[in-house]
Design goal:
Shape of chain A: globular
CATH class of the largest domain in chain A: Mainly Alpha
Largest interface: A-B, 31 and 31 residues
Distance between the termini of chain A: 37 Å
Oligomer: homodimer
Strand order of the largest sheet of chain A: 1-3-2
Order of helices and strands of chain A: HHEHHEEEEHEH
Largest sheet of chain A: 3 strands, antiparallel
Helix content of chain A: 40-55%
Radius of gyration of chain A: 20 Å
Structural class of chain A: alpha+beta
Number of helices of chain A: 6
Strand content of chain A: 15-25%
CATH superfamily of the largest domain in chain A: Winged helix-like DNA-binding domain superfamily/Winged helix DNA-binding domain
Low-confidence stretches of chain A: 1-7
Number of domains of chain A: 2
Chain lengths: ~180, ~180
Amino acid sequence: MATVVTEHTETEAAKEETMSYMMKRMKEKIKDKKYKMTSQRQVILRTFVNSNIRHMSAEEVFERVKKTAPDIGLATVYRTLDLFTTMDLLKKLDFDDGCSRYELNDHEEEGHFHHHLICLGCGKVWECNDDLLETLESILQKRFHFQTVDHQLKVYGYCEECQKKRAEEEKDEKARHANEE
Amino acid sequence: MATVVTEHTETEAAKEETMSYMMKRMKEKIKDKKYKMTSQRQVILRTFVNSNIRHMSAEEVFERVKKTAPDIGLATVYRTLDLFTTMDLLKKLDFDDGCSRYELNDHEEEGHFHHHLICLGCGKVWECNDDLLETLESILQKRFHFQTVDHQLKVYGYCEECQKKRAEEEKDEKARHANEE
DNA sequence: CTATCTGCAAATTGTTTGCAGTCCG
DNA sequence: CGGACTGCAAACAATTTGCAGATAG
């Protein structure tokens, strides 16, 4: 299973701000529907805001949350992540590493998507905020009459580091071949 | 689990051609490495070429292959699909419906990707061959020094049919609300 | 002949569900 | 108080693995 390491640098002040913003959104949306505000739900949301890791799997969230709330069950984590996803607080992602990942859905402005560069070498994931695809929707609408709600672009390739590694490996490979023959 | 229904119309003649082309590629690649040419592998590849269904899950392939080769095991199907994917004969896809799907990787020209429009209503998948993203790679290279090998764009939204359905449902919903109050 | 491949069954892994008890509103 | 929510354990579904026998080259 590839490790998805995406650091996220943010000042403490900025964190506070995101924190209260997300909390407010959660409280609004929870009141909106007939849901309840439980300690588990608060802790899980807080985990996303406080963590430097931007994309977390259910298991990762579970491990982190257990430190604050040791009695929590994995099933609750799954149920909460699911709920938050339908509430648009989180976004469910898939990096082909065998499990779903979730990230804070803090920029909810329409039409501003962000993409993921997934390194096939080390599995690291970069984020790329871009409006490259801004016009895509209108094209799809015209050509397929398809009403776009969201899209996810995954780009597979090699990061700078792995490009170097691979170049060296290839060199070694060739050297070995030359010796064998 | 959403059903992925993507029909693929092709004349018998075209099928024959794809068939022999794919078979040739398989034989080449199998000889290239130290792999062996088994009847199971041939049957599985043939299944992809002959089927009208473009994207198949392991289970679907298994069901189809069993008709020709009743003794085959599901594990073999998985192992073969995996092998074919690393051999670039197939492409592994993920439509978020709980299982991986595979499609024939017949157009191997670089830079010509095709995208999937996934309907959030009925789960149907459309294909959209397009060069919209042709310039993407060069931008990523410049900005992130990321060497792109492949990318996958998934577009979520509603197909024409489901747009109508949803409009009606909304109307009904409103009518019901009006009655209640 | 022998390394690769296969079928089978058992094991793993990520996720979901049923249920009895707990807790928010 | 009552329905929503929780933890637990059992259930599930997709995929993987170990192994003894089969088979391609």
